[in-house]
Amino acid sequence: QGTLTLLTNERGGIVDDLIVTNTSEDHLYVVSNAGCADKDLAIMRGRAAELQATGGDVHLEVLDNALLALQGPSMAQVLQAGLSDDLAKLSFMNSITTTVFGVPGCRVTRCGYTGEDGVEISVPAGRAVELAERLLGVPEVWPAGLAARDSLRLEAGLCLYGSDIDETTTPAEAGLLWTLGKRRRAAMDFPGAAIIMAQVKEKPKRKRVGLTSGAGAAGPRSPPCVPVSPGTVTSGCPSPCLGKNIAMGYVETAHSRAGTTLAVEVRKKQHPALVTKMPFVPTQYYMAK
After folding, report:
1. Could you give the number of structural domains in the chain?
2. Helix residue ranges per DSSP H, the chain
3. Domain for residue 284, yes or no?
4. 3-class secondary-structure state, position 48
5. Would you say 133 is a known binding-site residue?
6. Are residues 147 and 178 in the same domain?
7. Quick one: pLDDT band at residue 268, thresholds 50, 70, 90?
């Protein structure tokens, strides 16, 4: 079973968002953002050394693996042909270690960054190209560029690290308090806990919101002007599914209620935008019956 979790700093900011899986092999499997891998690893190594110094049985191993994402409605049909395991039994955010199209030692996790049913395949780096080419040889499989992937994750209301969340953004501001379990909230044993839990009680001054507009695409970091003070758009693009422009960003909490009309500045012109609940497009995550 896996989950999204956050590395935080002493100011309550988000150092990175990670997928952590509690495997059946008696270890935790962690996937970080590639751009944050070095700083994440430094934090983990430092904490592991602290625990080891007090007698903790903690070891950290870095895998030389590549990560391939196979996403979309045809994923299960395509991948099942290369697996002996039954994908119908694999629910969202669960994983198995298996052989994929003849490549052993792969970890297949039913998750992704698109809002669609999909998997991420951790594959030994030396055979990653082989597996990618095998998958691309299936007529239903097409390579997806960054813009296509970005439009999908934005339609699903998923944050992009470095744009929508960063070391100056707290989980409360970002709407990610669900990543903090009841035990951790009570123990307050994580960096920035005092700041984050104060925001849980008192509410943060700003919140991440979704925006829809019929105007030109709201580009990253263009300011949505609200009646009292400005906010910031952090991601934006035309939505292929909705036929309108979508964005997410931060506004003062007083202006964060769904249905609130704001103004977004696009190419030095202001256009009306509506605060909209996310995801903009319903997600298709698979849960086994």
Report:
1. 2
2. 37-53, 75-80, 128-136, 146-155, 171-174, 182-187, 193-202
3. no
4. helix
5. no
6. no
7. confident
